[in-house]
Specification:
Number of helices: 16
Distance between the termini: 42 Å
Number of domains: 4
Helix content: 10-25%
Largest sheet: 7 strands, mixed
CATH architecture of the largest domain: 3-Layer(aba) Sandwich
Shape: elongated
Radius of gyration: 40 Å
Length: 757
């Protein structure tokens, strides 16, 4: 309705009937009495009756129009923008492109329906008003490529079918791709030159979509190109103010690993995009796991946020334990609000059976296993030998290391290994040491224990490499007497890093340091390195001995993407009674923490944003299997067969059409077998930025286009006066002036016609 006060207009329109009613009543006011003296006058009146009737009708029309203009003026007429965008006559040739924003923010509830429902209704109506000679194309922002346009460019031959397709659309789970959609529209106009050209953009024009500087500059250039090509641009803004919208912004693994039967911390971040404080927000957690060969959703206890302030985020932590290894999806869901699309997000994980640790024993003794350097450590890490503790250890000798594929393990532990094969400086050929360096540089973990066999020449030479090698510090000859054991050293309570693997001895556990004795250790020379490498981090001391020099007991450094930890004593009982684990746990707990501190981080990305492709590297055992992917809408949407692709030395399967949020299930099957050999779950979440519902309004659209040379129509929130139209585009003053002019004309005509005395 093109009035700020439509009720006043309708009242004035009804008042137009008053002059007509008065006119009709005046015709019945006189009683006719015949008398002889008026006979000649009546003959004169009969001769002028036609002229008098015309004069009365002219005055009646003027008076009715005066009342109509008065009603339009008081109701503040703002102009009927809908009339400006109606197509011209059927004889004109037109190319019309509609860009329909189908991002998930268009699913916002508004009134009895949704924002996109209003946009689809308008679009269907406008398509029905086009002529058969018109060329029309409809581009969705979720699929902006011209080749994938919903319809066109083509002539309108079956408007009803197209309208039916429009009404069946539903919001995608993607963000607004306005720039790409307008670029696609520009290509369509370039392919269909000539005639009138008009672009309609139907969107909610959210502030969050129009504020990115790079997108605004590109959008302004695209708009300028369209106008230079003679395209008229019409924007229909359906943006409605957000009353209260909460968004699950992220679900993430806070620990470095997801291991079966080991509690893991999950972080859930909730943002309040609304304008009201949200209180007692219940976050429902679910776990999708494989139960007897079929995936099912298990409802977990809900978490509650006491309050989330407007525009703020709150984060909660949940501790979840996965009882079996394999692919798992953990999801968080909020109560229903005005925008359902961002109330749920998930995290897909590949839960491991255990972390794999390779223990390289520098002095193995199969006959007397307790004399081996690895005995107590392997017992602490994997007491049952089957990985139930979360760590699966494997022991080899130093000679066997060369034949091992290090990348099969999450960390390598060198236990009093005297020397590794290396090449002198300047020579570049594969050796055990160079392979170990590359393994750590690529993200692997390395732990080094010293001992009686430590070769100072090797450790201070190729292993330290002037400060850019694997060893954090240079070392000296052992300090203490491991044979007589008359004197011993302890850990310094003040030298324990609280966040490190020795945290058991920090803070309230400081008294535990008196229960561990070190009869000998390898002193480290703490000093500046000779050489520097930006890929090699500076050493950090995580624990110290309680000797006079406060010598490092445990030091760590980053090396490429991996981490190295060096413990300056033995892993066996040769130099310390620590491995005896008395009281129970005093050795086991720090060693378990050490593994989790150093081991290769879980970098596999099974969760991403909608639109990011699914990619999975096929293991050799699955190369003969067929890959099938079930989309989130399965079985309503059919499964997809994926070919295996070769990329260098790897074989991959890819799926690019991840336009829907939810779980994508990738299965590998052998011919003739119903059950899957392997199944991997991928999660795609909607972009949480689309949940910011604050509309940009005309000013925001003008800033994004870099111009005001377009027609702007507000199609939502018209109940408020400010939203009904632009204040600068009201026409009531013109109507008021026209009404005054008509009053003067009515007075003149009434006197001229002799109707006023």
């Amino acid at each position: 309705m093109p009035f700020i006060h439509p009720a006043i207009f309708w009242t004035g329109l009804a008042a137009v009937s008053l002059p007509i009613l008065i006119h009709l009543l005046n015709r019945r006011r006189f009683r006719v009495r015949q008398w002889a003296a008026m006979k000649f006058l009546l003959d004169s009146v009969r001769r002028n009756r036609r002229r008098l009737q015309i004069e009365e009708l002219i005055l009646l029309a003027v008076r009715c129009l005066i009342l109509l203009l008065l009603a339009a003026s008081v109701a503040r007429f703002t102009g009927c923008a809908a009339m400006d965008v109606l197509p011209v006559g059927d004889s004109a040739r037109r190319t019309v492109v509609y860009v329909l924003d189908d991002s998930y923010s268009m699913g916002q509830k508004y009134g009895a329906g949704t924002v996109i429902a209003a946009a689809k209704s308008d679009l269907a109506r406008r398509v029905g008003e086009l002529g058969q000679a018109d060329t029309v194309s409809i581009v969705l922002t979720s699929r902006p490529e011209a080749a994938k346009a919903l319809f066109g460019p083509a002539f309108i031959t079956d408007a009803e079918s197209l309208q039916s397709r429009i009404r069946s659309l539903r919001p995608s789970d993607k963000r607004t791709g306005l720039l790409e959609a307008m670029d696609a529209a520009g290509k369509i106009f370039a392919e269909t030159p000539g005639g009138e050209r008009r672009l309609y953009v139907l969107s909610d024009f959210r502030r969050a979509d129009l504020t990115a500087e790079a997108d605004r500059q590109a959008l302004a250039r695209q708009f300028a190109d369209l106008r230079a090509a003679g395209v008229q641009v019409v924007t229909l803004d359906y943006g409605a103010e957000d009353r209260g919208n909460l968004t699950v912004e992220s679900v993430e693994l806070l620990d470095d690993f997801a291991v079966a039967n080991i509690p893991m911390r999950i972080g859930i971040t909730v943002r309040n995009h609304g304008q009201r404080r949200a209180e007692n927000v219940e976050v429902q957690l679910r776990q999708r796991v494989n139960v007897e060969g079929a995936y099912t959703n298990i409802t977990l206890p809900a978490e509650v946020l006491d309050a989330v302030e407007p525009g703020q985020t709150r984060r909660l932590e949940a501790v979840i334990t996965c009882r079996q290894p394999g692919s798992v999806v953990l999801s968080a869901e909020l109560p229903a609000d005005e925008l359902p699309g961002d109330n749920r997000a998930g995290l897909a994980l590949q839960v491991r059976k255990a972390l794999r640790a390779l223990l390289v024993d520098g002095r193995p003794d199969p006959a007397r296993r307790k004399r081996s350097e690895s005995f107590f450590l392997a017992l602490a890490l994997d007491p049952s030998g089957d990985g139930d503790s979360g760590v699966r250890s494997e022991v080899i000798s130093a000679e066997q290391l060369q034949a091992m594929n290090l990348y099969d393990y999450d960390l390598i532990m060198l236990l009093d290994v005297p020397v590794l094969e290396y090449t002198p400086d300047g020579e570049d050929q594969p050796t055990v040491l160079s392979g170990l360096e590359q393994y750590v540089r690529d993200g692997g973990g390395l732990v080094i224990f010293t001992g009686e066999q430590t070769d100072l020449t090797f450790y201070n030479g190729p292993l330290y490499k002037g400060g850019v090698g694997l060893s954090p510090y240079r070392i000296r000859a052992p300090k203490g007497d491991a044979v007589r054991r008359g004197e011993f050293f302890r850990l310094s309570p003040d030298g324990i890093e609280a966040e490190g693997p020795m945290r058991l001895f920090a803070g309230s556990g400081a008294d535990l340091t008196s229960l561990v004795r070190f009869f000998a250790f390898t002193p480290a020379e703490v000093g500046p390195p000779v050489r520097r490498d930006p890929a090699v981090g500076p050493p950090r001391v995580l624990a110290r001995f309680a000797d006079e020099q406060q010598s490092p007991a445990l030091a760590a450094r980053s090396f490429g993407q991996g981490l190295v930890c060096m413990i300056y004593t033995s892993a066996s009982t040769r130099w310390t009674d620590w491995p005896q684990d008395q009281p129970r746990g005093i050795y086991t707990a720090p060693m378990q923490d050490l593994v989790r501190y150093v081991a290769r981080r879980q970098k596999e990305r099974f969760s991403a944003t909608v639109g990011e492709p699914v990619a999975y590297e096929v293991s050799p055992s699955l190369m003969d299997a067929s890959a099938v992917l079930e989309p989130p809408t399965f079985p309503a949407e059919a499964e997809v067969n994926l070919p295996q692709e070769t990329e260098g030395a790897r074989r991959l399967v890819r799926y690019d059409r991840t336009d829907r949020a939810g779980v994508y299930s990738l299965q590998f099957r052998m011919p003739g077998r119903q059950e899957a050999l392997a199944q991997v779950l991928f999660q795609r979440n909607p972009d949480p930025a689309e949940g910011a519902l604050a509309p940009a309004g005309r000013e925001g659209v003008e800033a994004a286009f870099g111009s005001d040379d377009f027609l702007y129509i507000r199609r939502a929130g018209q109940a408020g006066a400010a939203a009904a139209a632009e204040p600068g585009k009201e026409y009531w003053l013109y109507f008021l002036g026209a009404m005054i002019a008509l009053l003067a004309l009515e007075t003149y005509l009434a006197q001229r016609f002799g109707h006023y005395t």
